[in-house]
Amino acid sequence: MFYAVSALGTRHGFATSKHGQLIGWFNKEFIKTGVFKRNYGKTLRDAFEIRKQGDYDAFIEF
To answer: With b meaning 16 or more CB within 10 Å and e meaning fewer, what string describes 19-51?
Structure first.
């Protein structure tokens, strides 16, 4: 998901390697303006949180 939204950012002149910045930009440009439904922003945030848990927590429960 990160790379898909990152490609969207590149297409619109925005580039970052930080997940948090990318999510913030996506929400500002596409969720708050109504281009995408709010559930897309929530799904992106949830996926980021799960990735962080998988990368940094000793144990994760799915």
So the answer is: beebbebbbeebbeeeebeeebbeebeeebeee
Q: Residue 61 pLDDT more than 80?
A: no
- pTM (two decimals): 0.80
> Length of the chain in residues, anyone?
62
Give me the DSSP letters along 1-56. Answer: -HHHHHHHHHHTT---S-HHHHHHHHIIIIITTTSS-HHHHHHHHHHHHHHHHHHH
